[in-house]
């Protein structure tokens, strides 16, 4: 791609030196790596914002439709190298830094992972922003600026310990604070009814008003032609209330308590909601970023669509604005937009409701009923009284229309009404306020239509559609895997960075021994790179001649990290019991966080680390198998893990994983999927071919059958396989792996006394057999590399560029 930012390396060096001097107040040679990093980001962001201004002016002049993507998470990761690639200046900057006596690696290593997200939801949102910019869509992220990330995970005595993720400790050079664009947001208060000349209206009086202050982060599209922005909001006091008397009396914390209470709203991602204080804080977060985002949208729309006579062309709103809600966290977008249109802009209800339902769309990310947010009505009404009234009105009108059309179907009303059984049901609110509802993989959408949201699907099937998730190949292959990327580009050109479907051309090299051997060399480099990182972080020495078997994702029972570590325990037991048993040497690599209050998932992390402690210190086994748990999984270390992986563990209970995106990232980097037919694994199997992945275990129909019949019994599985499965289960409580911090009775009880809800025991033997088969295939390295190449070559479908084009055409009508 042509570099139009700097005409040559000399120009870059001149401008960079000036930026270091102006930002740091030192000469380049006196500045340290972090100061050099911050100045380089400022220089790139300066150039990017100039492009953004041109883009925005063109959007306004052309009346181009804007897409606002509301998500409580944006896991954007380190941006520097990604933006250098997208702007076409990666080589220029790298060469310039080398000539200046440093390196891009040294400078970029100073970048932290922004604590703006946690898992797949936030990573998907970040990929979508990248792809909207790549596709030339006027797309804007709307989220929260958390002072601290979810938490920094450390492992002590095998346990997950949560420490503060102070990602802003040294500032964040990509952001710009925009206090002039702050939006006031009110919590609590009293709704007052007014009436005059037969007309009545409501106002919200009193309450606590805070300022939502925006911080803008540039989003650079590949090619450097489009730069959008991610806007994240921080809560600040509208006016300073400092208690001078308290301060003078030595009560320093009390003196600034008001500011502290306000800023708590945006202090941390996902505050622990086990208690009422945490739940209220979470609800405040959700309303603040919704109200601030809608307020910002309204300002822009009115500026661009107000005529000379002062009349706003409200009919143009759905043609000018698309509001997309990512999961149920932004569910209040519909009610808030309705409130603004009626209460503040004076539109009648029917006109306003038409605008709402034509503008808003919703992506569902789960089949777990407990993940479809619900709020107690009394809590919701007390905190957000006017929004609750609007939700109540939406629900009342929905019920009236329902009774006219389906009056005898109370079962449908029970499952689709917004207010029911003392709760506000946010998924139902999202669906009723939206013109489009989509799942994120074909199997997920099928389950939504057939099971989770079947009543809504029966009533409005035209709303439902599928949009299989995607990833950014530029980041997770281009940036993350430079050696493999160079090999691909040398073979087929760099067009795949612009259009990932170009990777299909790699199939021409499936019988090319030189290319396949070069693939193996690249994988080896990546394994050595990851092994160094693992040694630094954990002290575990990985054998780079072993298979790197990887499962990295958020810890949850249905993702079945437990099944994976059961496999390791079984392999260890067999090694110890039978010296003639020689499995394929394997390094089992885990990473991921468990929610702070999710005790079961934290116990699985402790089990993995306890097994690692035993296995890695037993000379009978540690030459054949090693176990490593990489702490604090993030985008940064994920970019080391994905390129090194050879087996991609995607082993969720069939029908439970909406899509997954780690499966796509690992596939693109040439890992072989070992998985169930769940989420996007279904499409991976179709694209790569069943001969190039390893599928095992129960399918969705089997799981649903067991659940509906009630004829699955964990003890039957235990008794049927006492020698291996039974032994592994017993080891949870017999002290075998209790050396670090005790037994695992909680996990044992979940399996044996709560009947193994995730079918870990049922899938155990098929899973281990599938893993052993992959080990046999690995012995034929040429065959393995052909399989790996087939995965990379057929991974292009999973580009988020493709996903965004489908959203743009089918949902946003951009």
From TrEMBL:
<keyword id="KW-0021">Allosteric enzyme</keyword>
<dbReference type="GO" id="GO:0030170">
    <property type="term" value="F:pyridoxal phosphate binding"/>
</dbReference>
<dbReference type="GO" id="GO:0008184">
    <property type="term" value="F:glycogen phosphorylase activity"/>
</dbReference>
<comment type="similarity">
    <text>Belongs to the glycogen phosphorylase family.</text>
</comment>
<dbReference type="GO" id="GO:0005980">
    <property type="term" value="P:glycogen catabolic process"/>
</dbReference>
<feature type="modified residue" description="N6-(pyridoxal phosphate)lysine">
    <location>
        <position position="665"/>
    </location>
</feature>
<dbReference type="InterPro" id="IPR000811">
    <property type="entry name" value="Glyco_trans_35"/>
</dbReference>
<keyword id="KW-0663">Pyridoxal phosphate</keyword>
<comment type="function">
    <text>Allosteric enzyme that catalyzes the rate-limiting step in glycogen catabolism, the phosphorolytic cleavage of glycogen to produce glucose-1-phosphate, and plays a central role in maintaining cellular and organismal glucose homeostasis.</text>
</comment>
<comment type="function">
    <text>Phosphorylase is an important allosteric enzyme in carbohydrate metabolism. Enzymes from different sources differ in their regulatory mechanisms and in their natural substrates. However, all known phosphorylases share catalytic and structural properties.</text>
</comment>
<dbReference type="InterPro" id="IPR011833">
    <property type="entry name" value="Glycg_phsphrylas"/>
</dbReference>
<keyword id="KW-0328">Glycosyltransferase</keyword>
<protein>
    <recommendedName>
        <fullName>Alpha-1,4 glucan phosphorylase</fullName>
        <ecNumber>2.4.1.1</ecNumber>
    </recommendedName>
</protein>
<keyword id="KW-0119">Carbohydrate metabolism</keyword>
<dbReference type="Pfam" id="PF00343">
    <property type="entry name" value="Phosphorylase"/>
</dbReference>
<keyword id="KW-0808">Transferase</keyword>
<dbReference type="GO" id="GO:0005737">
    <property type="term" value="C:cytoplasm"/>
</dbReference>
